Predict the 3D structure of the following.
Amino acid sequence: MKKLSKTFEPLEEITILFAGDSGDGMQLVGSQFTKTSSFIGNDVSTFTEFPAEIRAPTGFLSGISGFQINFGSVEISFPGDCYDVLVVLNASALKKIYSIFKKKGIIIINTSGFSLNNLKKAGYQDSFNLLKEISAYTLYPIDILMHTENTNIGKYKNITKNMFALGFVYWLFKRTLVYTECFLKKNLKKNPTLLKANLIVLRAGFNFGKKSSTKILKIKSAIFPSGNYRNIKGNQAIVLGLSAASVQAQIGLFYAGYPITPASDILHHFSKYKNLGVKSFQAEDEIAAITSAIGASFAGSLGVSGTSGPGMALKQEGIGLAFMLELPLVIINVQRGGPSTGLPTKIEQSDLFQSIYGRNGETPMPVLAPHSPSHAFEMAFQAAKISIEHMTPVILLSDIYIANGSEIWRFPNLSQLDSIYPPFANKKNFLPYERNERAVRNWGFPGMAFSEHCIGGLEKENKTGNVSYDPKNHEKMISLRKIKMDFIQDRLPLQTIDSGVRPGKILLLSWGSTYGIIRGTMKTLIKEKKRVAHSHIDYLSPLPQGLETLFQDYKKVIVFELNGGQLIHIIRDKFLVDVVSFYKIQGRPFTTSEIITEVYRLLTIT
Amino acid sequence: MFKKNTLSSNKEIKWCPSCGNYSILKQVQVILPEIGILKENIVFVSGIGCSSRFPYYINNFGLHGIHGRAPSIGTGIKLANPKLSVWIITGDGDSFSIGGNHIIHLFRRNINMNVLLFNNEIYGLTKGQYSPTSRLGLITKSSNIGTIDPPFNTLSLALGAGASFVARSMDKYPKHLREILLKASLHNGTSFIEIYQNCNIFNDKAFNIFKEKKDHTIFLHHKKPLIFGDKNQWGIRLDGLQPEIVSLDSSMDLWIHDEKDRTKAGLLARFFDDYFVHNKFPRPFGILYRKDLPTYDSLFHEHISFKENIFKRLELILKGNDTWEIK
């Protein structure tokens, strides 16, 4: 695992966490450090965590906002779990992080945030000895407020504390200030005095480092394949993927959403692309969002609606209607902790059953899960392609780790995007439920002469679409709708391993955002020549071919999930194999050590 | 433009014999060829209930949706393709109970669609429970000692939510209904027509009084005085904001109906309440309120452009603002 060297030897990767009050500007500092690191050639993965409340009371544990960055000269597949460098602006920030992670590393402390009052707010006892507590760390205590005061910027001394910390960290890693200076100049144009204050303090933080005896930590650039790169967050990638799909299919895109954490950003991003013909609509509730999207699909567009768990529950009747109508529709569920309102800002993968089984009646439909922020582009595009070409609603099952995480993305040229062929009606004697060789019905919609028809949620007669209560017809229609899933399965990539050896002793199986941490952990397991492999499922329904033979190549299969164990039931049900489960449901992702410990335990008994 | 028979579907109609829905279906079939819109550009959307089977019985595009959601489905259709003429067919339970949230937001947004409320003051398809428009005290299968919850005043609610076209008609007034339907189809904005519709099985003759007793009914005409009675012997006058019934010979300054006056439309809509409290004001039929207001669909499309260079634009969006190249 990672070791922090005290020499000048270059390090492979570093995880740094900026933490402070939700009003301290930690998100800005984190995103600036991310951009600068990306621009100078590091691979980067980030995650942000902030309280559900907008302005939580200052100084308390509940109001801590954090931005975590894992960057390095090697492939970075997840935001990191053990911090090499902590930047904490007050006592609560330290307590919150310290209680979860212990590691020899560097702690940069803003001493002005550690007054007796601060320590009390953080819940430290009077007898608490900070220095003793963190003696295992390399400590850089800095009175940031004193330094900002010394720069003579007057009233801005408090709100620029984050820039001082950023300047110091830039020096610590010998990073240039130029990207952040440009950013500030662009964004604070309208307030020259505030801009000046920020620039002065940023530089002051950097210079303070220079004058101190702090050792510089070196990280080389990573080696990337040639191409064009940018940073991307998961929700944004979904929006781009679906927009690209609508352009490729040459049909309109209609997005309807109702604000909900952590899916709201999807609505925000869609509303920016009006010049791409994208229509975004803020509906009065979750049900109006899904049903207006269905209306748009009926009228010949790609209807899309996004939400999170509780909103998904409200949408299920509408999803059933879209399934019955056999219309294209993409439903995005950015999962968060449940049940009910649950943990709105915490990670969980507990909506898998809801996605696969959540509707009344026999309603098998595709469920796709992106495994990282940039992969969300590809999965969203494929969700739209399957939805349009197979005339079926598709669920895109993301989560908060993907939504709020960011990573470097080699974005595609248009020529690299797949074509999408909508099955438009083209005959005069149109029958709404006549099917092609892949069991897909033709898409005739309002505005198209000679294809007038009425369809609805009632069971319909094969081909004509007329209402039918005929027993044999019902069974036939159920099977026709099911067969569509087989044709979708035919086009999915064969399931293989992501890394490791085949055959071997243990297969680690995962889905969704746990991909990154397991891929990262595999590096260690491979280095130690363990006979293990990792396989990751992007297509959860229908499951891709190749899983069965894959399972046969290992003595044990273990499923890692951030829920009470859901995929494991589906695997057992489909393949009758004795897979084992390793789950965690604490609102936090897996850590490398948890995975390694479990794999070692299994290795000794297998 | 089209013959009527091209608009009636060949599907077997499954409403009860003598249901008021037959008359409404017929009037719609009569006016559709006259509204100047191509057959393939007309869409009927419904929710669940007896009335919501309507789209099956007409030969245009139709979507028989889920309970209460027709206004939202229609919104999506209209916003996806603003050229379409969208007709929402709904019942009193569908739109004012389970779908209450959607109908008020449709009124508020003023999307250019037509809403036909088939109000029979009862749940028909589920066989006889009281609805949110059932009159107070109605005995039904689910209210065996009579309802205790007062009904919605549908037109007041529509006006309160910001509807720009609010009218009432009845299945038993075919000519009047056709007139109102035509005017609704021409109105740019959400047109709301409450149509009293007799359910002869579960709530028979609920509206007979408005057909049989002329002193219980008043027909509104723009710029015309409010006169009613079997011999047109009564008029309505306004004393401040208080309406009063006067005999025609004694009256000097009758209330002149003005479709654009929202305050007075509100008073007319409230004749409904007073009718039950004092049993004195006649029920108004016709257009209570009609005004051209900005529509959501036109504002929505102002900034949407789906024209040339779409690939170029997509390329720029994929690229974003901060990119770098590695060679």
About this structure: The mean pLDDT of chain B is 92. Chain B has eleven helices and twelve strands. Chain B touches chain A through 58 residues (CB under 8 Å). The longest helix of chain B spans residues 174-186.
